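Purpose: get a first structural picture of the assembly so the mutagenesis plan has something to point at.
Setup: two entries, given in the order below. No constraints added.
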Amino acid sequence: MFKYALKRILLMLFTFFVIMLICFVLIKALPVPLPQGSEAQKQQIMAMRELRGYNKPVMEQFFIYWYRVFRYGDFGMGEQYLVATYVAEEFMERLPATMLLNLYSIIFSIPIGIMLGIYAALRKNKWQDHVISTGVMIFISVPSFIYAFIIQYIFYSKLGLLPQIMESPSLHGWFSWPMFKSMIMPIMSLSFGVIAGFTRVTRAELTEVLTSEFMLLARTKGLTKSQSIFRHALRNCAVVIVPSIMGEFIGIMSGSLVIESIFSVPGVGALYVNSVTALDYNYFMMLNAFYTFVGLLAGIVVDISYGFIDPRIRMGGKK
Amino acid sequence: MKKKMALVLVVLVLVASILGTCLVGCNNPAPAPSPECSSHVDANNDGKCDVCGKDMPAAPSHDCAVDGHVDEDEDGVCDECGEVIKNNDDVGIADDFDYVDAATCEHEDKDGNCVCDKCKTGFEHKDENSDGKCDVCKNKLRDMSLNQTYNDAVTQVATLWNVHRYQTEDDSYPIDLTTSGLYDFFFNGDKTGYEIWPVMAAAYPEDVTKEVKKDAFWSTVIPADAESAYAYKIRLNPQAKFANGKQINADTYVESFKLLMDPDLMNYRANDQMSGDVVFYGCENYYYSKTEKTYQTVASMGYNSVADALAAGKDLFIDVWGFYGAKGYVDSEGNECPQYLSITDTVVYDVPGKPGSDPTSGAGVWETYKTYLEVGAPYAEYLRIEKVNDQLGYTFDKVGIFKTGEYDFTIVLEKPCSGFYLLYGLASNWIVDVEDYKASITQDPVTGEYLNSYNTSLETSHGYGPYKLTAIDATTMVFERDENWWGFSDPRFDCFYHTSDVYTRVMAEASTRKEAFLKGDLVGYGLQAEDYEQFGNSEYLYKTPGTTVFFLLLSANEQALKDAQASKENVNKTILLREDFREALSVTFDKSDFCKTISPARSPAYSVIGAYDIWNPTTGEKYRNTEIAKKGLVAYYGFECKTENIDGVDVEYYTLLGSDAKYSLDQAVAAVTGYNPALAKAKFLAAYEAELADGKIDADDKIEIEYSLSSASGFLTKTINYMNDSINKVLEGTVLEGRVSIVESAPQGNEWSTALKSGKTQTCLCGWQGGALNPFQTMLYYLEPGHDPYAAKYWKTEAINATITLPVGKNGADVAITMTLANWSRCLTGDTVTVDGVDYNFGYQQVADEVRLVIMAELEKEILNSLYYIPMMQDAGASLLSQKVSYALGRDEYNAVMGRGGMTYMTYNYTDEQWEEVKGSIKY
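Result (structure tokens, whole complex):
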């Protein structure tokens, strides 16, 4: 198992650097935005770009980039977007908002999604199942930013129950009621789709497991219905549900790219979108590295988690 | 089972009722009513709501002194108070700006604004009737105990508000609140004009040119015959301190300037000090004191084209590192390829270790790519002229700013400046906390670049204005009144800065800002085009005139047009070279309707100098209100001036060709529409016939004009659609019906203007801003090649002469002077131009203001007659203002310099606590 994990990690790092190289070459292949301002200011920016190595061959720039990263922890500065800010500092400042938002969303989505899935499976082909399944179809099909506007309209504009945008962490701190209250709407926007996803997976798996012969055996052994579901059926379903948590988490992170802008969440998602729009190489590279790394890591975690959930699955072992 | 069904039914009914409430509300865009009472009614005038019984909210009753007069029927009399409204037009300042010692000043306050008219010392306000307003100046007195928060929204928080380095508008937001200039603008007593007060300075500058000239060095710098306007002593306000308590003195100013211009630090804002009306002597030399030579673009050196530069004997250099990627290439002897290679340099450089793989020389690159490097072409930035620095090692002691006392310093200027423009130039400030600033400087370990963290975070933030930054993160900026600010104990400011806190949130989406405003959580909301239907008639809508005139640029770059049409089949573009065609386009659009359709806040423009541009800042007179400007305008639009004798007196009147109607000059100006479909049709057809006769267009060719699109947007699509509809309407039933169109280019991003200037695209709505107080300067952007005008590539203003007759001879005799258009624009803005051995300088205070006015009017005519710039739209904005606050001027009043007084003069109708009570019931 250890060898398998190590191998996967090394492969992940290799993949990561290949992706980074491709991104770096492609982004550098785009024309450098012409400097704006007076002639003297333009010249100054050109001189600064020269100093920063913009005119060097792309591969040389790539190695300088990683040299700076590993030697000084320096991912460069914003040049087109958030001008003159340190990319790494800005990233670290904004990371908690994104992580918190995504974690809250996944934490709320898992139990609700699974419970709805169980309920739908137990009420299979009854009206409750139909209602839930219809809801699942709707929430999976509609993008999260659509809910975001509807939720904002209802809970802020019409009912005035929740703040329109996220509160300032420097004024309220990350773990305060005003801050949590201001995050409810983005959490809801991100969660609806995920809840629907969990519901669908749980329902599908459980429906299948509930018809298995071992479930019949469990009942004939004298277990109650709930005992047999929680002890046997759900455990079998977990092989599919638990790995899907990572998948859904990645889904939430991609969803938050847009949601963060709508609710003015000071996270890395909005930063990523804006850096692409502004053609800021340094922000783009760091955020791209982050999202790529998270995606690759999620893949490994999912694969390794199979072994823990179901002891019958062994990975990396010799035949 | 029945119980379960009943339970489910109850739940369903509840859900349906909640959804129903929401969905019904969705049809009504108005803000939600308060839970108790949708809107309070007090029919019996007992001060309580007849519906809910609560006290009526203090309605924002109209107070003309605070809210300004209202004149819906435009009869010149206020509808609210019946007072005759003073005309705000053309009223500027009546001050002179001579130094007056406050200690010996015989104070007087004729305009009743509680400030001495001469030395600008403030007088104590009186409020004997305790109505909260000064009995003299009528302004509301500030109460520091009230919580009055200004809730604002931005699209991005500031990240670098260092006055030496900031680059974006977002970053200037904290600077505006936390700093003050040496001098600043304020309303006069009755708010019909403005004054300039010393703020961080203690008095107006004292002209010390004669004294400074006694110094050995400065006597070589200041012209021998100059006795004034070159050197000034600035006395500082000794009470001024940074928010951290550190004293601000002359050292602060001198040392800060030295840091700003430091040759190593490469401060972005250093360049601001090197141009404009107020330039400290030698600062540019000091900035470049470590630069052996610079490479300037061909256009910035004043050449219209490469041919012009070569004809002037200039050697041209290509940045082969940037343009060709030749960095690291070596010649046959192993010498590395320099960044700049002369276009005549034949030395071959190649990839090291791989001879023959990419042999490159300056001459070779030039031969292959010269069309791409031409002035105005996409890669013109890479073609340069070498400028050797003969001031290498220039030291700061030869820069025109030095300390002359603990609280005064002297400035020496590169070119003379005085009066309004001197104070205007000193209205922004450059000071920093020198000690902390130096401590914030670090050096990049890899590149050696100097970095600076000053004013990039709350911890490194420094200010010296009425507000201080107290919190900042990626979502929010919070500013609080700095109660230790010296100004709060200065009686001049007792009626200002009512805002206790500024709470600024990031709201990138307009829809988010709109919702927040309607809920009372924002003080203002800038209307989007789609909002006009709902709020266009709101009594809280404030229209703010903008200074930019948007013109439709029509490219006539012959080679570029040929290239562009060669890439498409059955498409003609060269017809744009014909004046008839451009003239046709100029009268095709009903500009008034155009504005109403695509941007209702804006107004039609008929000339390139805007309706709000002030030509004489001392009197505040707007250029468009001058007779010469009016005459020029009506003449351009086809009015003919005639004279008739009425009762023995010759009276001028104007007629439009083909019409018998007689107009006065003002009536003629009002009658200008710039729209003449019949003429447009005739001119389109004439151009087409000529093009056909020359064999340049086929009978089935289409005429496509490519619009330089920065990025796709609804606004631009609407604009282009409108233009095409207008063209189609004019050409209906002719051979050109359906054959002339404006098409969107591929999105060009920030390169849209480069594409336009190079002729890759052929048209676009563009404009210049910033000429409101100095439209003379704007002329450079149309006529002077160094300022990279849009039409520089094909409108050779260096070669086109214009003769203007000016009263500059002996005893005011008229003299006809001929020089190129480019030179006219240069000498109008203070440069000395030599023509036939005679020096001309028509800059500010070099000649009578009226002489400058004549020149500007003539140049404006030339620009219009070129038919490259078609004026379309005068910029303006419209925003809803919260009922929580009031501006110093009402909706119908606006001062081109002061606006409506901004946050400085803003007063509050509700405190924060009161606002929370009433905001839910307020509608717009």
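Chain A has two domains: 33-74, 88-309.
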